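Retro notes - structure team

What went well: the batch runner handled both jobs without manual restarts.
What didn't: labels got mixed up in the shared folder, which is why I'm recording both outputs here explicitly, each with its sequence directly above its tokens.

Job 1
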Amino acid sequence: MKILIVEDDRPLSDSLRALLEGRGYQTEAAYDGETGVEHALLGVYDLIILDVMLPKLDGRQAARQIRARKCAAPILMLTARGELDDRVEGLNAGADYYLTKPFDTRELLACVGALLRRQGGQVDQLTFGNTALDLDGSTLACGDRWVRLSAREFDVMRCLMGAKGRNLPKETILARVWGFDSNAVENHVEVYVGFLRKKLASIGSNVRIEAVRRLGYHLEADGLP
């Protein structure tokens, strides 16, 4: 599970990351509303933790933009203001839950768990053709044959399966998998696509990763239009 934390208080952001990573979640951080929206719209996060008081865009404005672009990831909104009108405004902006600072870490973890469970089967696996990607076990399976993926292989495959056959530019895969601030280059994508092609073949998958010059990669499967 990957969680985006949008919080301009860096010590608090670091504490949240340490807490969540200690529970097995992957985390990434943004420190202003505009950057938070850019990250959220990559579509790779299972949950967004969003502070209200942020530079550039406040949390409510950010939530509205995220929802306007059809990003359905749950949003847990954090605020130092707990009045009813503030909570109502946050929920109307697109938040799924509203947590007032200071909060008990047990309550935060309970909220995170509840919001992730609310997505049900959508977060258990992705399928394409005769192949399934297990989101909890990081495995790729075809019938009774399966193979475990490295963290990078998993993230690249998740991007491709989530695109449902649409082309993904290499730049998009780089941003989603390696992050905006990474020094990774397009060759890194090509290398991991090569690894995935071999692993798909090893389990007898009918799924192929096709390259389209200047357009990136997409999935195709025998028998699918």
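Job 2
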Amino acid sequence: MKKVKYNVVIGKNFGDEGKGMAVDMLSTDAGRTVVIRHNGGSQSGHTVEKDDIRFVFHALGSGSLCGADTFWADTFFPDLYKLGEECSAFWALTGFVPRIYAMPDAQITLIDDVLLNMAAEVARGADRHGSCGMGIYEAYCRSEAGFAVTVEELVHMNSEQLVMRMAEIRRQYVPVRLAALGFGDKYALPEEYAELLENSAVLENAAESILANLKYVQIITDVKAFLDSYDTVIFENGQGLLLDSENTEFAPHVTASRTGLHNPVAFLSRFGFVPERVVYVTRSYVTRHGAGPLPFECKREHLGIEGSDLTNIPNPWQESLRYASHGTITDFIKPVAKDLSLLPERGNKCECLLLITHLNETDGKILLKEEALDAEGLGCRLECETVFDSIAESYTRFSKDIIVKDF
């Protein structure tokens, strides 16, 4: 596979496709590399296995095991409270911590965002939206309401000042947000969350951790010069394309952010660049972790899937991983074709690669609604659609084993 500078990795479905593996593949032998996290936040769980190491990435870029740096764009909501735990775990496995850079106005997730998110999902019961409980949408809503806290602001705060800022948000914003979520009207606020949202020690502990973990982050003001200093730039998308905030088909069971090409194209256009390669990642079947529509859903055993999922364990907010086949070839292509229309002029300037993972679990077959195709058969069906330029097959958990084939 030829080397290009500006790459975008996008999950084709509802997430959990193997985006971490794709980023690791693009980061291998890629020269000086930076991975840009640009949507969502630390709810992402991107798994990379390399040699004897298995790591699940949240705020760090999934190219870190290859030595890639991480950059937080201003559309990413980092959770600095949790960052220390991730960096410590990475250091314990590798002996180093990746360099992390951030735009000054990257807005952080606060502890009350997480508490509001968890409380809302618990209260909704069977009507839950499928959130992971990490507070990303709540951080977005708070920022939209004028209560954002940026990475740059943190640099100029001590622990007491940050506690005062979070306490002010708790007084002025949280009651309004609770009402908007239906508490006091539609739902009763669960007692455990009511207590935590009144507890000042929660804010004090969070402030201490946030500022302590700020040591891992360096602010970048000249982004163009920063990008120019790298050989390879990889945009690592969170969630999946079908969870894009503008996807009305699956609302309200979507994320708060843009999960396709929108953010990378908008980001690069500020500096006169365009994506040169887009990698759409899909399992050989479809999964969804959380509530919401899942076309062609069926029991895992009906798909004949072998093995088990080590990353997506059941949790109180998303419950268990759900399974489905792909639809028709038209269903398979439609969201990608729509996403690619965001490129100003695709022409021959941007390569489009389809990476199919977990083929080892389905005997090398891609499971469609009414048929099962091997990668070659799928490639023949897709070739005339002029959407993908090449197809890649993954039969193991390691990016080094990925096979790339041009049409």
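One thing worth noting from job 2: The two ends are 13 Å apart (CA to CA).
We'll revisit the folder naming next retro.
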